[in-house]
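I have been asked to look over a protein record a colleague put together. Alongside the sequence sits a line of tokens, each denoting a local backbone shape. I have pasted the whole thing underneath without changing anything:
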Amino acid sequence: MRTLARTSVSLALVALLAACGSSVKLNETPVESRALTPVNPPASEQSAAGSAGAVAGTGTGATAGASTPAPQSQVATVQAGQMGSRGVDGLPSGVGRIVYFDFDSYVVRDDGRPVVEAHARLLNANRARKMTVEGHTDERGGREYNLALGQKRAEAVVRSLTLLGAAEAQLEAVSFGEERPAAQGNDEAAWAKSRRAELKDRP
């Protein structure tokens, strides 16, 4: 008898400790039934719910002229178009084809990473797609130096794309140096626009 009593006490203690150690708060309303703004179903579902409520005497058919929405799932439906529109070239809207660089640098800046990542996804999704990465500089510095710097900028973008999964055969790096400025002028605003790498599709 004593052994049975000790076993019962031990089991009760284990159950008590297990309940105390649970991270679930028993007094908290579960996520599924928390009150949120109900999502209106399509008209076909509303009419079906109305007839079911009329038969049961509850819901939308309970009172003539009044409608009380039945509890529904709080998960919102997302249409494919809401995931982000894509342009003709397959890029997400708002993503360009230019990566800008700091003065005398060929390090891809943080603001250029979304551009590189978007193009890497395109190249990964379509292995037949090919791109040319054109490196450019501002007018300061010698011609040969700027050609070399433009090449390093183009190669830095190509290297970033390949690290994200694009194949080297899909990419070509070329440099135009200072020959094709993006903006005319001899100030920092114009020079900043010219220090760039442009990603262009090629056949």
